[in-house]
């Protein structure tokens, strides 16, 4: 199963980048990170629409898309792992995690998403969200394999 993170914005070096690299190296699934950036100076709705175009073009046709959204469903780590495992067992070829820009998602992106996932009620910086999702992917792999990294 291929996993892709599609994120608006570029990650610069620093601790978040190092954490992401660490977790991705440990993941048993191939994980690809696609960074999208709208370089034209636009504001508000126009930027959201342009970012939406970029996100939608980057999602493979048959992928199961999970959009990280504050209004999405919160899952405990074990439930997240079960969801990943269920997709693996069903033969889902491609899971895609979407991380939108500062203005949120264009409505077309939310309509395309198969699942809206929340990391809780707090607002997180986009760069930390990347690290958190990578850690949860590694944690899910550990839960599914019975590795002692995750403690209930």
Task: Name its key features.
152 residues; alpha/beta; Alpha/beta knot; five-stranded parallel sheet; 5 helices; 22% strand
The overall number of domains is 1
Overall spatial form:
globular
CATH class: Alpha Beta
Helix count, DSSP H or I runs of 4 or more residues = 5
Helix/strand/pairing class, anyone?
A: alpha/beta
What is the helical fraction, as a range of percent?
40-55%
The CATH homologous superfamily name equals SPOUT methyltransferase, trefoil knot domain
Which fold name is given in CATH as the topology?
Alpha/beta knot
Q: Can you write the helix and strand succession as a string?
A: EHEHEHEHEH
Number of strands: 5
Average of the residue pLDDT scores: 93
Strand percentage lies at 15-25%
* End-to-end CA span: 26 Å
Helices and strands in order:
Layout: E1 2-8, H1 15-26, E2 31-36, H2 44-58, E3 64-74, H3 77-90, E4 94-99, H4 107-112, E5 115-118, H5 126-145
Parallel strand pairs: 1-2, 1-4, 3-4, 3-5
Helix pairs in contact: 1-5, 3-5
Characterize the structure shown.
The protein is of the alpha/beta class. The chain has a single domain, classed as 3-Layer(aba) Sandwich (Alpha/beta knot), CATH 3.40.1280.10. The chain has five helices and five strands, in the order βαβαβαβαβα. The protein has helices spanning about 15-25, 45-60, 75-90, 105-110, 125-145; strands at about 1-10, 30-35, 65-75, 95-100, 115-120. The chain starts with a strand and ends in a 7-residue tail after the last helix.
């Amino acid at each position: 199963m291929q996993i892709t993170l599609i994120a608006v914005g570029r990650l610069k070096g620093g601790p978040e980048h190092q954490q992401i690299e660490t977790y991705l190296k440990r993941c048993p699934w191939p994980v690809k990170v696609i960074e999208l950036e709208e370089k034209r100076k636009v504001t508000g709705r126009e930027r959201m629409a342009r970012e939406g175009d970029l996100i939608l073009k980057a999602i493979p046709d048959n992928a199961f898309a999970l959009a990280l959204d504050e209004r999405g469903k919160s899952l405990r780590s074990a439930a997240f792992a079960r969801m990943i495992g269920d997709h693996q067992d069903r033969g889902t070829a491609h899971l895609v995690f979407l991380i939108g820009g500062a203005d949120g998602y264009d409505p077309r992106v939310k309509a395309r998403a198969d699942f809206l996932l929340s990391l809780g009620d707090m607002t997180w910086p986009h760069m930390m969200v990347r690290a958190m999702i990578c850690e949860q992917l590694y944690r899910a792999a550990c839960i599914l394999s019975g590795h002692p990294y995750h403690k209930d």
